[in-house]
Amino acid sequence: MGRLRGFLLASSILAAHGASAEPDLTLLRKPGSYVLLLDAEKHPIAGNYWLSEGLKVSTHSRNPGSYPQSLLYSDQDFPPGRVANMYLFLNGKETVTPDIRAVPVGETATVTREYEPVGRLAKKAEVRKLTYRLTTVALVSETMAGAKLLSRIYEIAPTDPANKEMDWGRRVYIETLDLDISREQAARVADIETGTAGSTGDFEGMYASRVLANDAYAKCMAEKRAGQEYKDAVRREHETNDAWMVKEYLATGIPWWEQDDVNANMDALLDVTGLCATK
Q1: Phi/psi of residue 243, nearest 5 degrees
Q2: CA separation (Å) from 95 to 91, 102, 266?
Q3: How far apart, in Å, are the Cα atoms of 242 and each of 73, 94, 173, 201, 236?
Q4: pLDDT above 50 (res 14)
Q5: How confident is the model at residue 260 (pLDDT cuts 50, 70, 90)?
Q6: Which of 44, 77, 169, 267 is the Cys-Cys partner for 180 at CB 3.0 to 4.6 Å?
Q7: Do 138 and 155 meet the contact criterion of CB atoms below 8 Å apart?
Q8: Where are the domains of the chain?
Q9: Residue 47: pLDDT band by 50, 70, 90 thresholds?
Q10: Mind giving me the DSSP string for 173-218?
Q11: What is the pLDDT of residue 16?
Q12: 135: helix, coil or strand?
C-alpha cells in the first residue's frame, strides 16, 4: 500500500471547490464527468473529461503559470486507439503491438506503435511507426479515502538513443482514472478531484482557471462561468460540436472541424483562451 503512496499520491484527499470531500469514482467515464490530479496547492497536473464512455478529452499542465496543453480527444490513455487534436492537425488511429497491458511485471517487451491518419485530411498526413522498449515495473493497488486505485508503473526507452519522439523514462498509468503521467508529474500529486462540466470548453476553462495560479484570471473566469452568456455558449457547444464527436467521430473518423460547414462549428466552439487576460 505504501509503494504507490510514496511514489505517486499523498495519503489524504481533500475537498475542492465544485467537488466532493472524496472522489466519486462512480462518475468516471460518464458523459459530462471529469477527474483531476491536483498538486499540494490544488493546481491541476492532469485531467480527463468524458463526452461518452468511449470518448474523452485530456490535458496536462506545463510549467507553473502556463496555459495547459490543448485538449486531446482519445478513447483511452494506455494505449490510445484513436487520437485527435484540432490545433496539432492530428486525427488518426493508433495500433500498439504487443498488448502492453499484458507485459508481466519485471519483463521487457519490444513495442511497435503505428499511427494511421484518418478523416478528410488523411491524404495530407503520413503513417508513422515507432519502435521502443517497455518494462512493467509494478502493479499497485491502493485504497485512499475509500477510493481504490489500480496503477501500473512502467518504463519506456527508445531502441534508437537519438529518438526524442516520446517522453522516455518511468511513467505511471492510473488505470482506475485512465490517466497516464510522467514520473515527475506523479511525484507532485497530492489530491484527486471529480466533478462535472457542461462541455469540453467548459472543462478547459475550469482547468485553466485553476492551473494559471493568477487570482485575477481565476476571478474573471469564475465571473464568466457564472454569466448567462457563458452558460448559453456551453449549451451550444454541448449540443453541436460535442454531440458530433460522440455520434459521428468514432463512427466515421471525421471530427467536427473537418465537417463541410466548419464555419458554423467554429462559431459553436467555446474558446476560453481569450475570455480573460492571463497577465
Answers
A1: -65, -35
A2: 14, 15, 30
A3: 11, 22, 26, 9, 9
A4: no
A5: confident
A6: 77
A7: no
A8: 2-211
A9: very high
A10: EETTTTEEEEHHHHHH--EEEEEE-SSHHHHHHHHHHHHS--HHHH
A11: 35
A12: strand
